[in-house]
Amino acid sequence: MSILQDIKDAFRQPNNTLKQLILINVIVFVVLIVMRLLLTFTVGPGAYNYLMSFIALHSDMGTFITRPWTLITYFFTHQGFLHIIFNMLNLYWFGQLIREYLGDRKLLSLYVIGGIAGGVLYMLSYNFIPYFEDRAASSVMIGASASVLAIVVAAATLLPNYTFNLILIGPVRIKYIALFLVILSISGAVGDNAGGNIAHLGGALIGWLFIKQLQRGNDMGRPMHAFFDFITGLFKRRPKLKVTHRRTTTFTGKANGSTTTVAGKPSQKEIDLILDKISSSGYESLSKEEKQKLFQASQKE
Question: Could you write out the three-class secondary structure of the chain?
Fold first, then answer.
């Protein structure tokens, strides 16, 4: 099977958001490498820089107004192997946790909202903080770090005592990994990559806020998914109407103080209680029934 066919299959499979996000980043990275080579050898390096100006996020508000799509494209764009490798590894490791416990839609919400928040904080800082005044006209930003850090902090907020085995270090709880990355971004907010580190902090804030709001029953990604569902619905074929007559019976009852349905799908109250238990005692403390309810909730959306 060809590489192209593998890519097509990855985008056709349902509930495959993590792999799709990684693939998009890798494909953009490879395409830009090829474009840089071709443009440099044929037209000159200036042509590639001009192309990047339509993808990277500009700190200058006047430029951004003419290219608003860059608030999205910048967090799918990388230059340098270490840059994309580090981001994609963190996206895979921590994204697996979000995907397993909260589902693909929550993972997509965190990635997109975290990237947007990082980009907005970057532009606001460069335009309203005097320290960055000299850089505002020429600074541009690319990279998925803000999106990835949103996912890292979200996973650490949801499962603070979950442990990763790090090479040469051993088992480390992910709350300490997230804390280290946040402190690293704070320390770099006055360095050469100040704009990027400020964006990281915007993503980290969204990751923490997203989980805290979710535990209170508020899904910050709901408006985004409503928009996506509307757009995709425009391109879906409407099925032919079939008129059938059948008798239906609806039953609702209460179990353990929470409303359930005959389909067995857990209520929001049940999910909130399970998330609180994970936050305080870890995923391992859940019963088999609670794990099943969490899985059903992730499939509901």
Answer: CCHHHHHHHHHHCCCCHHHHHHHHHHHHHHHHHHHHHHHHHHCCHHHHHHHHCCCCEECCHHHHHHCCCHHHHHHHCCCCHHHHHHHHHHHHHHHHHHHHHHCHHHHHHHHHHHHHHHHHHHHHHHHHCHHHCCCCCCCEECCCHHHHHHHHHHHHHHCCCCEEEECCCEEEEHHHHHHHHHHHHHHCCCCCCHHHHHHHHHHHHHHHHHHHHHHCCCCCCHHHHHHHHHHHHHCCCCCCCCCCCCCCCCCEEEECCEEEECCCCCCHHHHHHHHHHHHHHCHHHCCHHHHHHHHHHHHHC
